[in-house]
Amino acid sequence: MPSNKEVGIVVLLKLRLEAQPGFPDLDWHCGDVQVRRSSEDPEVEVFPCHKWIRTADGNVELRNAKKVMCLKKKETLAILTNHRERDLPTKTTVYQVKPFLLINGPHCVDMSSVTALGPNFSYIRQRYPVNNVHYIKSFIERRTSWSSLQELETFFLFNGRENTIAKYVQAHWQEDAFFGYQCLNGCNPLCIRQIHNLPPNLSVTSEMVRPFLPEDSSLEQEMEGRHVYLLDYEVLDQLPANTVNDKQTYLAAPLCLLHYSRQGELKPIAIQVKILNRFLLILFWLHWLLAKMWVRNSDFQVHQLLSHFLRTHLIGEVCCTAALRQLPEIHPLHQVETKFSSKNHAVLTLTTRLLLFSCGESSPEGQGVPQSFQTAAEMCKFVTMVIFSCSALHAAVNFSQVCSVINKLTEVPAAMSRPPSQTKGSVSEEDIFSFLPEVNSSCHVLSVLSLLSQPAIDFVPLCSGATVKLVEEVWRELKMIAKDIADRNSQLELPYTYLSPDHIENSVTI
Ligand SMILES: [Fe+2]
C-alpha cells in the first residue's frame, strides 16, 4: 500500500483487521509485512508477524525484523520501550493462573477450554489413524477377568503380528532380565537409583540375597562396586486408590532391589510390598511374577502422574503461562515455544508430596524450583531444564507407552483388583488373573495409550524451522546425534528410538 507522506524511519508498525460488511469475520494469518521507501528502492524492511489476527485484537504492533528479540536495557528508542510496556497488562488479564487441584500444589492456566487460548496458542493435534485398535473394540464390553494366559496370548497375536518389538515382549515379558531392561529403556527411566547402602525401610539382609549374587561376592561388595540399584515407590504409600468398574482397586508402595550382573544384565533380586502396615518381603522363590506386577503397577502410577504429567506437561504449562504473563513478546525468553497441554489428569494429593514444587526451598536432591535467579547462568540452566522436559523427556515418557499390548495387560497392569496378600505356597495362573484389571478396563487403558503413542501428522521435530543462527547450530548437532543413535539401534535386537532427535517433538503436544 503506497503512502504519499514522508514517514521517516519505520521502527514500529500497526496492523489492524477490520470487519467488512458482507464478508465473514474470519481470522487471518499474517507472515510478515514488508515496507519499501519507494517502489524503485530494492531494499525491503521486514516486520515479522507469524500470528493469527482477529478483528477483536484491534491494533497489532510489529517491530522491525532487525530487532525482534531484545532485553529492556538494550532498547534505544523510547517508542520501543513504551511498546514493550504496553504489551504486558493485557497479557496478565488474559492469562490468569489458578491452582491445578490444591492451593499448595502446582498451578495451571485459568481457562475453561482450548479455544479460549485464541488461535495463536491453541493447537489441535493431527494424528494418523491408530493401527490395530479395532480388535480391542470387541473386548470393550466385557466386565470379567481375563480367563487365561492363552486368551491373552490370542488377544496379543492380533496386536503383535507386524510389530517386532511386541513379538520380542511376548517372548520375554516374564523374564527378570526384561524387567530390569525396562527400568532403563521403558517409559519410566527416572525411578531407578544406584545405592551404596540399603535404605532403612527395606528389610533385606545380605544373607537373603546371597543366592542371586556372584559366589565370590556379597551384597556389601556389590553395592561398593556400584552394581546394586533400587526402585522405591514409597511416594505412593497411603494414597487413595480409584474405583474401576464400580469396584475398589488397590495401590502398593513397593521397594525393589536390583543387581547388575557380570553378564551385563540388570535383574530384580528382592521385592518388598507393604501389607496393612506390615512388610511382605518377596524373594525369588515366592510369588515372584505377582510381586513384579505390583512393582510395575506402582511404576505405572508414578510414570503417569509424576514422570509424564507433572514433570513434562504441567511444568511446561506453568513456565509457559508465567512467560506469557511476565515477558513481553520482544523478550528472548518469550520465543521459547512451549505449548499448552490438557489438564484432565488426577494428581490427587501426590502433588503436595513433591519437593519439585516446594518453591524457594532446595530439596535434598536439589530439585526445588527457585523463586528468583541471581545470575544469567542460573536462569540458563533452568530454561534448559524446561526445554529438555518439554521435548526430549516428554518424547521418552510419552511415545514409549505402548511397547506391546501384553506387557500392559499383564506385567504392567494399570490397576490391581485385589490388595497385596501373604499367600503361602505357589500362586496359580488363576490367582494372578484375579489381581489384574478386567477385560474392558484393560482395553480402555490400551486404547488411550495407543492414541497417546501415535506420532502426529504435523509433527515438528526439535529445533526444526529455526531461523536463529544459534538454534541452527543446535539443529545440525541434533542431526549428528540422530545418526549415531540410528547406527546404534541398527545393532540392537530391541532398538530404543524415543530419544533420537528426529523423533523428539519441539514441545509437549499430547
Ligand atoms: Fe504427553
Automatic annotation (TrEMBL):
Pfam families for the chain: Lipoxygenase
Recorded GO MF terms: metal ion binding; oxidoreductase activity, acting on single donors with incorporation of molecular oxygen, incorporation of two atoms of oxygen
Keywords associated with the record: Dioxygenase, Iron, Lipid metabolism, Metal-binding, Oxidoreductase
Swiss-Prot/TrEMBL cofactor(s): Fe cation
Residues of the Lipoxygenase domain: 70-360, 365-510
An annotated GO BP: lipid oxidation
Residue stretches making up the PLAT domain: 1-67
InterPro entries: LipOase, LipOase_C, LipOase_C_sf, LipOase_Fe_BS, PLAT/LH2_dom
Entry's family note: Belongs to the lipoxygenase family.
The protein's name: Lipoxygenase domain-containing protein
